[in-house]
């Protein structure tokens, strides 16, 4: 005869399994706050450039600093804000890369040197 295996419908007398919860859950508000702050950060740095090359270099620098802040937030702070920072930084870098590629394709001259 096979041993009886409980279905879980009725308590078996054993203690319940532990439930693990995230100490700092990611929230939509945190992601939105990180995204909004990073948009402002990238725009302010992008406005420092007087040409496409300047815009691209300032955006690259601002994005690098933003990613360092996101790494610190992942380790010590709110991971939702860090996710918003990382997502918008990637988008900002993509916009700068597309602008550089478009100028390079139309003029035949690499605009960053």
UniProtKB/TrEMBL annotation:
The chain crosses the membrane at residues 26-49, 55-74, 81-105. Residues 1-24 are annotated as: Disordered. Keywords: Membrane, Transmembrane, Transmembrane helix. It comes from the Bacteria. This is Uncharacterized protein. It comes from Micromonospora craterilacus. The lineage of its organism: Bacteria, Bacillati, Actinomycetota, Actinomycetes, Micromonosporales.
